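Exam revision sheet. Question 4 asks you to relate a sequence to its structure. Input first:
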Amino acid sequence: MTEGRSEGGRGRALITGTGAVTPLGTGTESFWDAALHGKSGIGPITLFDSSPFPSHIAGECSDFDPTDFMTKKQARRMDRYAQMGIAAGLQAAENAGLSDVLQNRPERVAIVIGSGIGGLATWEREYQVLHERGAGRVSPFLIPMMVPNMAAGQLAIMLGATGPSQCPVLACATGGEAIAEGLELIRTGDADVVIAGSCEAPITQLSMAGFCAIRAISTRNEEPHKASRPFDAGRDGFVMSEGAGAIVLESAEHAERRGATPIAAVAGYARTTDAYHVTAPDAEGRGVERAMRLALKDSGLAAEDIGHVNAHATSTPTGDGPETKAISRLMPHVAVSGTKSMMGHSFGAVGSIEGIMCALAINQKVLPPTINLENVASDCEQLDYVVGEARPAPELKAALSNSMGFGGHNLVVAFTEVE
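Answer key, structure tokens:
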């Protein structure tokens, strides 16, 4: 949504299924239970030898086995990011009970699965093959494993979904953008059902080297579970992680017709651009504030209707402060969670995972916590943070999920309860 659209809500989509692969666990129930108990999914890196780097910690999806969702042959021909995206999408489709729709009206099922980076591990591996063994030994699957749209394409193939398919790429705002694009497909009537989400597998040597070079990564190596500390005075950078999330969106009429049970609704969204800096957000948070205002307008909601914000909150000094300023100007009353404190930052994947958290918070009337927040930073003092443990929220009816990506991209999605 952009400025200039009409007042009032423009239509919503119901969430009828979810799927997740996260450092807190694979499967929605597993990761949500861990989140509500304030557990940390951060630990020592095992996916590569991290000894040459100043940071040795990450949020790995250690319980994820791709062969739980596909054959070994299929898994070998996919990058890890696609494996996780497909796993989340298959979970969401099963959770929503889409088998009849996929069998009888596959052309009405759309796929929107984004990735901020794509198959980075494949790129690194095959580049090494090229230089060590020659061009003739590069895998014929390099390109289909590397390109970021392949999670969407492979998921469509596995499900037989022949409706529109898309792959948003918007850095760390990719997951929110996927949900926004899914909502638009429902609003325009281009699909009856959309599987929307995102995935990322960035825990590689090249990725670590790049983020260490800009000093964005936490080096609290001796206490991995305490390294991600949104809003805390002792924060020293984000913790890289991996994962995937997917939700099933449907029109209310379609969900009712097939007897689906909705979890929550996506009521609106907005996107803005800071036009400020390639990696740092606008210092006053003006871009994300405008995105929140426009998301409220698109949803037909008032600021007073929002009871919860799942903040982008990466645990960086340049990011947490501006977002705090933006929220405090618009919604000083709201309860705020920084769930990357538990999961780390999975870049393009995180917006869809945090979107699931917003939907479940509304459905179950409970707010996930921000762990490791011991001393609120001087630039983050204005808000009501959900600290340490989950908080009951019996009156919660609407929530916002904020995503802010490199390049100055802001994406805000509004979630509401189902009346």
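Marking note for examiners. The two ends are 24 Å apart (CA to CA).
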